[in-house]
């Protein structure tokens, strides 16, 4: 199987728009405000900044390009430290990270190796993937935000490079970003091929037509299914065995719309063209068939709102950041949504 060793390329000059004056305690509120944009359906009501997320690293004030470069350099440094601890992995880390000149090429190389098979060479996939990534700075911005999301929210993640190399939810999400770009360019055959390979390799089935925001955590990810017309907002955390599906054979816009900052527990089914509001929490094992308002908790089969339909309990923290799956669940209501 071929391995793609990087060659120098011209640096990207794409710009982000972070606020250099934010404090560490405002970091998550900043992220929520940044990504809470009315893309298709959601409002932008901020939450309290007093949530429980612990920030692992102090923010560094840098310009936009330097910030992208900084994350990649940090990943390379983490790779060097890993090799010092486990020299047996030196070849793997060299081909995956240390020989690569950019995050784009490292990601294209890793995905091409994992998704190749006997009749679909890694070289062919690398050329396809790197072409898409190097021409799509918006995808790389999303990749970086996904890396930060996993490292900050998942206690099992010990470093950026650990997430990059070993977390199949992260890799499946990035492969989807590539397939979605191809889908939007009218290259449906290639997009569906990538979807199929991702489903076979990572056990994650996301239709290339689905729209996914930034700062996504697919925790464990096994069994995640996302339909063609689904929309997932920014800073969403989704556990394993979650289905965002349709209700039958209906055509057209038929899949759920997930707002910003939503937490979806393991084993959940959200079915039909319904909206899950910003900052909502869906309890594990729930079956959601009707709209869930902003900043509320739904749990059960069929799902019910905690606090009742008329006056549901409002959340004051962003559940996708806190990853709190159990608070308020004991207040499970008898009122059907």
TrEMBL record:
Top-level EC class as recorded in UniProt: transferase
**Cited SUPFAM superfamilies:** Trimeric LpxA-like enzymes
Q: Does the keyword Cell membrane apply?
A: no
Keyword Transferase part of the UniProt annotation = yes
Identify one Gene Ontology CC term for this UniProt entry.
Answer: cytoplasm
Q: State the InterPro entries in the record.
A: Hexapep, Hexapep_transf_CS, LbH_SAT, Ser_AcTrfase_N, Ser_AcTrfase_N_sf, Ser_O-AcTrfase, Serine_acetyltransferase, Trimer_LpxA-like_sf
Q: What is its EC number?
A: 2.3.1.30
Q: Which PROSITE patterns match?
A: HEXAPEP_TRANSFERASES
Q: Which residues form the Serine acetyltransferase N-terminal domain?
A: 71-175
Q: Where is the composition biased (Polar residues)?
A: 13-23
GO BP annotations of the record are: cysteine biosynthetic process from serine
One Pfam family from the UniProt entry?
Answer: SATase_N
Renumbered residue ranges of the record's region Disordered: 1-28
Q: Which keywords does UniProt give here? A: Acyltransferase, Amino-acid biosynthesis, Transferase
Record-level Gene Ontology MF annotations: serine O-acetyltransferase activity
According to UniProt, this protein's pathway is: Amino-acid biosynthesis; L-cysteine biosynthesis; L-cysteine from L-serine: step 1/2
- Family membership: Belongs to the transferase hexapeptide repeat family.
Q: What is this protein called?
A: serine O-acetyltransferase
Q: What is this organism's lineage?
A: Eukaryota, Viridiplantae, Streptophyta, Embryophyta, Tracheophyta
